[in-house]
Amino acid sequence: MWEYSDKLKEHFFHPRNVGEIENYDAVGEVGSLACGDALKLYLKIDPETEVISDARFQTFGCGSAIASSSALTEMIKGKTIEEALKITNKDIAEYLGGLPEQKMHCSVMGRDAFHAAVACYRGQPAPRELIEGNLVCECFGVTDEQIRKEVRENNLTTVEQVTNFTKAGGGCGLCHERIEELIAEVRGELKEIQKKAAAPKPMTNIRKIAKVQEVIEKEIRPTLQQDGGDLELVDVDGNRVFIALRGLCTSCPSAGLTKSGIESKLRELVHPDLVVEEVSA
Amino acid sequence: MNTVYLDNNATTMVAPEVFEAMRPYFVERYGNPSSMHSFGGKLASQVAVGREQLASLLGASLSEIVFTSGGTESDSTAIWSALSTMPERREIVTTRVEHPAVLNLCKHLARFKGYTVRWLSVDKEGLLDLDEVREKVTDNTAIVSVMWANNETGVIFPIAEIAEIAAEHGALMHTDAVQVIGKIPVDLSETQINFLSLSGHKLHGPKGIGALYVKKGTRFAPFIIGGHQESDRRGGTENVPGIVGLGEAARLAGLHIREENERVKRMRDRLEKGLLDRIPMARRNGHKDHRLPNTLNIGFEFVEGEAILMRMDDKGICASSGSACTSGSLEPSHVLRAMGVPFTCVHGSIRFSLSRYNTDEEIDYVLEELPGIIQFLREMSPFGREYLNAACKAQ
């Protein structure tokens, strides 16, 4: 059971502005039956002032999709197009007293439908991110441009968050690697990684673990072993590398120095964000 | 507002008789059956009674019952046991429509343990093809694990025949029967089934207790290793109140199994016909006859399941949905997708599962409320207008 706010439930049970507008000036449509939710938004717009005088919707979807549609229409009515374009998906979620994290894509759908309607009004085919870009998630038809936009606007950092906001990656999961790359790219990490590690691409977890192993085997352990010490790689969790020191290292007063040495080596050769933690194993 | 509970494949009410039977075993008779003193030791005879009641419902002998914590533990125990007693066999045969307790375990075994899983598909009506079973079970199969009936659609699989095929190849047969026990008569004495999982809370018993049937002569490796309980097959102090409750639930299930297949089935059929008559563009998911007497899965086109459930909940009606939005994942039910249910209605599929505690009045109430809910949501939906208008005119 989802934790829905009272405001959300109220908009779900008594949605505002349901239906069509006969002589609409703009219509925006997003989503599909196959994807499990869809929103069609109709607008009446004053040509002089560009004030949205009426907004109505038809939605196929879950409780939060219907409530988000209802909220959107209430929020944009009476505003000029320019004012309404400033409404973000977060604003829609906040208007409803918050959305469960996994349902954020419903608020994104609301905003996208409005942007699509505005594009329609201005005689443009559709908002740029909906038509340009390469398909990343085949299950839900999401492009890299859409993912970049949500990562940027909602400050997303994980694949799971991208799925919650765009649905991308919520099906077969084959695109998770590409989504990680897009997150890294948008967050400006890509350039840094290229600069520091000369790595061609941002890393997936598996590649990162393999690289950490390789560096430890080839670069770090031989040095330690010369001094009668050794280390064992215990685990890698995200950017945290867990190691256990062995042999003389365990009693070495400068073990702390050893640890920071290992860390800087791994940062230099694998990934700048790595943190080394020592565990007793 | 009264609650109309039509979600008995999720869990059931503990029968009042079961609760009464369990009551003394918390505060008064709380001993440990393994103790030397009689205060605890004499509880062993209560555990024996529970075992006897359950064995009798299954057509099993006492030594074939191992009490566990529930269906998931029983499933894991059976599958891991088969794999470790037959280490030379590296294949598992199962279906695409299993409960996650088996499905995700098999995926795990394939991904991390190097087993090959051969998946059996189902047709539009949710039925398995025995020829496909014959083709996929080989001399390299360690275990064939096929649910006896599907939890979402109620479709019943020909487990006895599948067990024969498994036996021909020397493979072990496991069936997840949590949805079946207490709903249709089962007699394991004449079958080739090696393992059968069941769960207390699906048959008006308590949660946290279940059992694994292990056919006499089947090599067994325990999953939970510890004390000598359950003849060294499952460590851990016996859940005495749970076992007493499961035994009583099994006894009651035996008494009510005819009612389940007559009165409950009649209510289910009336609900099915009533909904399909009153609501256009709706379809049953799952074979009409090869189906549990209590289960009905209906897909309502052009509306979404979570929205239906929320509005039903508002009217006090409990059911469940194969919709993506209710599960926390974005993909709708793996069962309905495996059946090829069209995408126009997979998101709007609702499962009603009845029990002997439901009444005709409750069915009337649902028939009264649901058409309005579907209509309200369809009027809001951007899809299906042209079809629905055509359907209305045709009526």
Write structural notes for this entry:
The complex is a heterodimer of chains A (281) and B (395). Chain A folds into 3 domains: 6-129, Sufe protein. Chain: A (Alpha-Beta Complex); 132-187, Orthogonal Bundle (Arc Repressor Mutant, subunit A); 205-278, Fe-S cluster assembly (FSCA) (GMP Synthetase, Chain A, domain 3). The two termini of chain A are 41 Å apart. Helix content of chain A is 47%, strand content 18%. Chain A is built from 12 helices and 8 strands. In chain A, helix 4 packs across helix 5 (104-121), helix 7 packs across helix 9 and helix 11 crosses helix 12. Chain A has helices spanning 6-13, 63-76, 81-85, 89-95, 104-121, 128-131, 144-154, 159-166, 176-186, 189-197, 205-226, 255-269, and strands spanning 26-32, 37-45, 52-60, 135-137, 142-143, 229-237, 240-247, 275-278. Chain B folds into 2 domains: 4-9 and 257-394, Aspartate Aminotransferase, domain 1 (Alpha-Beta Complex), CATH 3.90.1150.10; 16-253, Type I PLP-dependent aspartate aminotransferase-like (Major domain) (Aspartate Aminotransferase, domain 2, 3-Layer(aba) Sandwich), CATH 3.40.640. Chain B contains 16 helices and 13 strands. In chain B, helix 8 links the parallel strand 5 and strand 6. Classes of the chains: A alpha+beta (281), B alpha/beta (395).
